[in-house]
């Protein structure tokens, strides 16, 4: 214990004005090397300031009990991470501004969802009333596009990887498609999914209807509840998930629904798609399920079910190469899954802990993992070399409500050798406020 405290006292974080610095070496990591298939190493990230730990022994004890009683962490062994400064990073962050969400004047705007377009250098935000577009270079508003009334809250937003389409999903079970003009650069509403033409051609046939509630049926191409997530795939497909427990597959070119899968036993809250087309869904039934087209098939099959969380899974994010999956849940943990060649497909390698309430959103950019929580904070994590664990580089505060959505992009002027990595991070809260942060990450000098 004394060795751990000595190591922690060697690390400090400083803050001045709106700018703050946190050292990656300031995270305490508790882990265990797996000795059986049912156990796995866990990473527990606490505050980077040793005095905070010393002044709150009771809180630390309660947190330890919480970790030890997590069903995914059957046993823990205290380990001191290797103090090799060549593998440590520090981060500084600055809150650039807050973007006020436009309102229709009929009441609150509700939560705001976010997306970046790296190719066009645009930031998209959407709430119940407006789809808003900003120039990422100077955060200048470009346009505010009204969303048709009656759709309810906007639940998620996604961009097509190879085209000008923007997809928003809504409480009323619809998906709206917006197109950016190649001439004016402005956006317009193209259609709502499923398209009227797609519905019309399926209406006459009884086989196209499914039972969604007692004595109630609807077309299988239509979501029967809020569409909670949407993600684009690599082969001209995009995927939507809903509280109606289904995963639907859509063609990006024809905008037709190609497939509907009864994916979970409870509401589906999140979806993520890897570059190879593998699809991950997270649900209130505590499960993460893996879907793929096997052996050239035209439909998706269940590949694996990942069962480690003890409560509703709210958020999923993938590393750039798709080999690492991050999942956030109401149990306050972010689990780290790595691809393996086995029937289970993915194996848990650790849990990132530190948030005091449910994890509501996740984002990955470069080597960073970003988490947003109901505790109103955003945490920046970074992996410290191969299988060395993760460090919490920064904890960003300022929101009045929980963090519902995250978007992050690495700035192009940070690619030069020896220069700090510079990121723009946007966080959207449940009250509709959007905060824009500038994050710099640098290796710690030895």
From TrEMBL:
<dbReference type="InterPro" id="IPR036322">
    <property type="entry name" value="WD40_repeat_dom_sf"/>
</dbReference>
<dbReference type="InterPro" id="IPR045182">
    <property type="entry name" value="JINGUBANG-like"/>
</dbReference>
<dbReference type="Pfam" id="PF00400">
    <property type="entry name" value="WD40"/>
</dbReference>
<protein>
    <submittedName>
        <fullName>Uncharacterized protein</fullName>
    </submittedName>
</protein>
<feature type="repeat" description="WD">
    <location>
        <begin position="147"/>
        <end position="188"/>
    </location>
</feature>
<dbReference type="InterPro" id="IPR001680">
    <property type="entry name" value="WD40_rpt"/>
</dbReference>
<dbReference type="InterPro" id="IPR015943">
    <property type="entry name" value="WD40/YVTN_repeat-like_dom_sf"/>
</dbReference>
<feature type="repeat" description="WD">
    <location>
        <begin position="261"/>
        <end position="291"/>
    </location>
</feature>
<keyword id="KW-0732">Signal</keyword>
<feature type="repeat" description="WD">
    <location>
        <begin position="352"/>
        <end position="381"/>
    </location>
</feature>
<keyword id="KW-0853">WD repeat</keyword>
<feature type="signal peptide">
    <location>
        <begin position="1"/>
        <end position="17"/>
    </location>
</feature>
<feature type="repeat" description="WD">
    <location>
        <begin position="306"/>
        <end position="347"/>
    </location>
</feature>
